[in-house]
Design goal:
Elements (H helix, E strand, L loop, with lengths): L2 H24 L19 E7 L2 E4 L2 E16 L5 E6 L6 E2 L4 E5 L2 H29 L5 H26 L2 E3 L4 E3 L9 E2 L6 E16 L11 E6 L6 E8 L9 E8 L11 E7 L3 E8 L4 E3 L2 E8 L2 E12 L3 E6 L6 E5 L10 E8 L5
Parallel strand pairs: 1-21
Antiparallel strand pairs: 1-20, 2-15, 3-10, 3-14, 4-6, 4-9, 5-8, 6-7, 8-10, 10-13, 11-12, 11-14, 12-13, 15-19, 16-17, 17-18, 18-19
Helix pairs in contact: 2-3
Length: about 350
């Protein structure tokens, strides 16, 4: 038997074996798995919990965070350069408006003032004599005017020098508390040298922001409550100023309230949590917060319609710890999915495990 015939026989045998194996595996129709409707696997229902919407009384309030700032805040500096000759305040002490705090060397200025005042006396006496002489026509009007102008000039120089001398005395611009001293007696200071920081901490201001959509719901005179970090005690303040425009970058409105802080227990720079009460809603639509699905274009929920999941875009309002207010998109009596949302798809068949409503302690 030659080589070609052997090759043909081997190929025929391999084909026969392959045919037998194919018949064994694929010819048994009675052993095939049952197909579901339409030839596909049986569709499974999504198990969910649902929430039945009903109107509920809602205390409408905005929660925000803010900062405490002093009523007034200034860094004390000298308006002229010179050596510090006297310091009249204690660090951390209370000072009154106009109180002398620090003196810069004014000896040279005093000497100049004394000289000018002496010249004024001389020009004043000369002016009086020349006025008498002018009345008797012993001198000309030009001679009198020359002395009169000298007197007026020296008076102007004295006023200018006194204004300069006043800059050598650093005084408190308002009632407040002075901070840590940055200079000592004998130090040379300039207009760029910080002396100390002074603040008015009674009252203090509370700065915070609210979403721009509530800009028409707040006005000057409204009250807020706030707590400062490290304390659970609530304090009440009054809104006294509102920024006239909404920040286009953050879409928020800046608000400022005033707290009397008579005990000075609230320190400037502190972080505070703010609550601003709005008009209470007697029949608000509230749903569990976990029912909301954030999307790029807004917020979505799944309604239950005919046993199937139906997506619905909504407009949200205020939040509490467990509930969120729905302003648009849901009506009383609607049923929404509150649990199992991740498995739900538009048109999914639903298997309802549990039904709750606003009266079930949500």
């Amino acid at each position: 038997m030659n080589k070609t015939v052997k090759t043909i026989l081997i190929l025929v045998a391999a084909a026969a074996i392959g045919y037998l194996l194919y018949s064994k595996v694929f010819s048994g129709n009675d052993e095939a798995p049952m197909a579901g409707p339409g030839g596909g696997p049986m569709a499974q229902k999504v198990a969910v919990d649902v929430f039945v919407v009903s109107p509920t009384a809602f205390q409408n309030k905005i929660t925000s965070t803010g900062s405490v700032i002093p009523n007034e805040d200034v860094e004390l500096r000298s308006e002229i350069s010179g050596r510090v000759t006297n310091i009249n305040f204690k660090e951390g002490g209370t000072v009154k408006k106009g109180q002398l705090l620090l003196t810069v060397n004014d000896a040279e200025l005093r000497a100049q003032l004394q000289k000018l005042e002496s010249n004024r006396e001389l020009y004043s006496d000369t002016e009086k004599r020349n006025r008498t002489l002018l009345e008797k026509e012993y001198i000309s009007r030009q001679e009198y005017d020359q002395v009169s102008n000298q007197l007026a000039s020296v008076n102007a120089d004295i006023q200018a020098l006194k204004a300069t001398m006043a800059k050598a005395y650093v005084r408190a611009p308002f009632d407040g508390v002075i901070g840590l001293r940055q200079v000592s007696e004998g130090s040379y200071v300039t207009a760029a040298t910080p002396i100390a920081r002074m603040v008015d901490v009674s009252p203090v201001k509370i700065d915070f922001n609210i979403p721009g959509r509530y800009s028409n719901s707040v006005k000057v005179g409204d009250k807020i409550t706030f707590t400062s970090e490290g304390s659970a005690e609530k304090h009440e303040a009054n809104i006294y100023a509102i920024q006239p425009n909404i920040d286009p970058a953050t879409r928020t409105l800046q608000i400022r309230a005033l707290y009397d802080n008579k005990g000075q227990e609230i320190k400037p720079g502190a972080f505070v949590k703010v609550e601003l009460g709005l008009q209470d809603v007697s029949e608000a639509i509230l749903i569990p917060t976990e029912s909301i699905i954030p999307e790029a274009t807004g917020h979505k929920v799944f309604l239950v319609k005919g046993g199937k999941a139906q997506p619905q875009m909504v407009k949200i309002g205020q939040r509490s710890e467990t509930l969120i207010q729905i302003i648009e998109g849901i009506e009383p009596g609607d049923t929404i999915i509150s649990s199992g949302i991740l498995q739900a798809r538009p048109g999914s068949d639903l298997s309802i495990r549990r039904v709750t409503s606003s009266g079930d302690g949500q």
